[in-house]
Design brief:
With 165 residues, the protein is mostly helical. 58% of the residues lie in helices and 4% in strands. It has a two-stranded antiparallel ribbon with strand order 1-2. Helix 6 packs parallel to helix 9 and helix 7 packs antiparallel against helix 9. It starts with 7 loop residues before the first helix and ends in a 16-residue tail after the last helix.
Length: 165
């Protein structure tokens, strides 16, 4: 994508607004990591006459809506997975743990998978909270942006000034 050719400073400014808008959810994600954030509606015998449907925590729905409103949710998230050989949740965690400013777009690709695929496979939103992927992504993105905001930061000698080249 076009944002792959930004300088480090441009990348920080490009990603900051959307990361900040989602960062307000970090305390909630920390509190709910490992727990269930949805239930199945089972009102007055609905199973007998209708199909059941999930009911989500309101904060989770606000998180999803905020992410969907982001300009960085990428419908081509599948390429992030194939390009980086990500196949499992363990692969996602490994990738997130090792990501740098260069991989910010790919971090958004992982988030995009959960947000977009969750629109058709609804339990994926709850899974993103339960397995901690949403939390891991936001913490890593904030860590990357905080690093590049520091005055004493510098790139290792083998990296170019622009991260996408």
């Amino acid at each position: 994508m076009e944002y792959d050719k930004l300088s480090v400073e441009e990348a920080v400014e490009f990603y900051r607004p959307d990361v900040e808008s989602l960062s307000g959810f970090i305390p909630w994600l920390e509190a709910h990591s490992g727990s269930e954030t949805s239930s199945v509606f089972t009102g007055d015998g609905v199973e007998k006459h209708s199909i059941t449907f999930p009911v989500y925590d309101g904060t989770l729905m606000n998180f999803v809506k905020t992410a969907q409103a982001s300009s960085l949710v990428d419908r081509n998230y599948v390429y992030t997975y194939s390009r980086n050989r990500i196949r499992t949740v363990a692969d996602e965690r490994r990738f997130i743990r090792n990501a740098t400013i260069k991989e910010m777009g790919d971090l958004w690709g992982i988030l995009s998978k959960y947000i977009l695929k969750g629109m058709t496979k609804s339990m994926l939103w709850s899974e993103g909270v339960r397995n901690g992927i949403f939390l891991d992504l936001l913490l890593k993105m904030n860590e990357i942006l905080a690093f590049w905001d520091r005055e004493d930061r510098h790139l290792p000698e083998d990296r170019s000034h622009t991260y996408g080249r």
